[in-house]
Amino acid sequence: MDGLERCVGGIVFDDQGRLLLIRRANEPGKGQWSLPGGRVEPGETDYEAVVRELREETGLNVRPHTLAGSVRRGRYDIHDYECTWTGGILTAGDDATDARWVNSAELVNLDEAGHLVDQLLVTLRDWNELPAA
Fold it and tell me: Is ATP-binding there in the keyword field (predicted)?
């Protein structure tokens, strides 16, 4: 075992092209905005984990598809998947203190104010996964 914890995240856009973010309730990044997601449980596939984590943190049902990319943050090996929103009502829950849709300007403002988790904006830009204006 390499000591890394496998995690997943979901990149979800609404019908206006806004990106789904949650405010983290726990470390790492407590109080900062991030993509929803979390640890992959034993015996769970990445897709199953994305569906479970997004339902727990946002109240939304999603269908994951393409792997957008992966990053390592400390001991976390995070795999972020593009997802389609299929239902549910946006409600912060579990490891999130808030959840909301953000457009491009709001995402930049959160980053400039230091309210995004480290490197999120750069990573989303590199993966061509930024919200619409």
Answer: no
Place of tokens 């995240």: 9
Structural domains in the chain plus CATH codes: 5-126 (3.90.79.10)
Neighbour tally for 108: CB within 10 Å: 15
Q: Are strands 5-12 and 76-88 parallel, antiparallel or unpaired?
A: parallel
Instruction: Return d(Cα 103, Cα 87) in angstroms, integer.
Output: 20
Does residue 1 have a pLDDT over 60? Answer: no
Closest CA to 81 of 127, 122, 32, 126: 127
Q: Give the global pTM.
A: 0.94
pLDDT digits (tens, 9 = 90+) for 60-98: 999 999 999 999 988 999 999 999 999 999 999 978 999
Residue identified by tokens 């990445």 is 46
Contact 21, 92 (CB under 8 A): no
